[in-house]
Amino acid sequence: MIPYGRQDVTQADMEAVAQVLRSDFLTQGPVVPRFEEAVAARAGARCAIAVNSATSALHIACAALNLKPGDHVWTVPNTFVASANCARYCGASVDFVDIDPSTWNISIAALTDKLAVAERAGRLPKIVIPVHFAGQPTEQEAIWELAQRYGFSVIEDASHAIGASRGGEPVGNCRWSHITVFSFHPVKIITTGEGGMALTNDAYLADRMSMLRSHGVTRDPARFRRDDDTLSSSEGPDPWHYEQQMLGYNYRITDIQAALGLSQLTRLTDYVDRRNMLARRYHEELRGLPLQFPIVQPENRSAFHLYVIRVKHAGSGFKRRDVFDQLRQRGIGVNVHYTPVHLQPYYRALGFASGQYPEAEAHGREAITLPLFPMLTESLQDRVMKSLREILCR
Fold first, then answer.
1. 274 pairs with which residues across the strands?
2. For residues 84 and 347, is the Cβ–Cβ distance under 8 A?
3. Neighbour-count burial for 72-86, b at 16+ CB within 10 Å, e otherwise
4. Three-state DSSP class for 161?
5. CA torsion, points 107, 74, 65, 88, in degrees to nearest 10?
6. If we measure between CA atoms, which residue out of 379, 354, 378 comes closest to residue 365?
7. Residue 64: which of 21, 127, 14 has the closest Cα?
């Protein structure tokens, strides 16, 4: 079976991890901050906070922005459920903005219209979470302009998009957002096994996220607040003293994972180059089939975490399920990204229903994710394309 995505772990990666295993620190040692500094430098952001998953990064990003019950968060339906769940963890309500039919990212027109209606109703979002679907950057500058006008915060869910850029600027530099989140799951661009990172240019938000990932606890005497019998009055705080200053979580990443991520990061450019080359081959070789292909905006460089095609039902004579099943039967491990979040049972129970976000729902009915990962050879990709042609050209 050719999987839709797969990690690439080299001998250098294994040696980097082995060095940590031979060291004095396995969890929160010196490698985690080195990894944070390296990713921040690569993305052009001032601060980075590494955590155990992108879901955790989204959660602490919302919490750092003081999201609470009664607040509203907007994201897109065309994403993994974590993009919406992070708001629910904070007790906030979730709503969705439909996607653009060509880019499959958040529709700026739909967002603009929805904000105008929400302003009149007094229900503006506190946070908007645009998603860089499949690795293509969103139109962040337009979203940022709307954020300045309507007063909401912006968290970029760039789980798919480390190594991508817009207008020559790297995704993650937070020029047009308050916080950006990356994922290091094994099928993503680089991996730490499981892991994620939140980047920001705001030192206050970075400080809050750093504490939130580790129980809300600090051991830094400069931050201590208490002045009672737990502190020595004349000699300063006892050397064992620590303070919990907020309700935090155990979202820490380990030095073992960070070592793998640091090693993988050295190949980020090569990985993104390879993914783009394979995406071009798909686009060129499959042209003429009854499919809709991903369109990368001219100002964007996609990281191509995923290569998603859409099987157009109307007039094509093909159903997505038939194409999916036949590819699987031929050993092609295709997948679907995504079932729209608002159609999941949990969100239906909150009042969402079919027909609310037609573009995202059409995408959910038609999308198939083809295999795309750096170690996919041209011969294996040819097998994928040959199978797809034979199925669609009968």
1. none
2. yes
3. bbbbbbbbbebbbbb
4. coil
5. -150
6. 354
7. 127
Is-contact 253 25, C-beta < 8 A?
no
**What pairs with residue 238 in β-bridges?**
none
What gap in Å lies between CA 107 and CA 104, rounded to an integer? 8
Distance set, CA 382 to CA 174, 329, 337, 357, 379 (Å)? 38, 17, 22, 35, 5
Task: State how far Cα 118 lies from the chain centre.
Answer: 26
Q: Are 121 and 104 in contact (CB under 8 A)?
A: no
Token code pair at residue 297: 């905006």
Tokens of 324: 């999916």
User: Would you name the residues annotated as active-site residues?
Assistant: 188
What kind and span of H or E run contains 383?
A: helix 378-392
| Phi then psi dihedrals of residue 388, to 5 deg | -65, -40
pTM of the full structure: 0.96
For residue 307, give the DSSP letter.
E
Output phi, psi for 142, to 5 deg: -70, -40
Per-residue pLDDT of the chain (394 residues; tens, 9 = 90+): 999 999 999 999 999 999 999 999 999 899 999 999 999 999 999 999 999 999 999 999 999 999 999 999 999 999 999 999 999 999 999 999 999 999 999 999 999 999 999 999 999 999 999 999 999 999 999 999 999 999 999 999 999 999 999 999 999 999 999 999 999 999 999 999 999 999 999 999 999 999 999 999 998 888 888 665 555 556 678 888 999 999 999 999 999 999 999 999 999 999 999 999 999 999 999 999 999 999 999 999 999 999 999 998 655 567 899 999 999 999 999 999 999 999 999 999 999 999 999 999 999 999 999 999 999 999 999 999 999 999 998 7
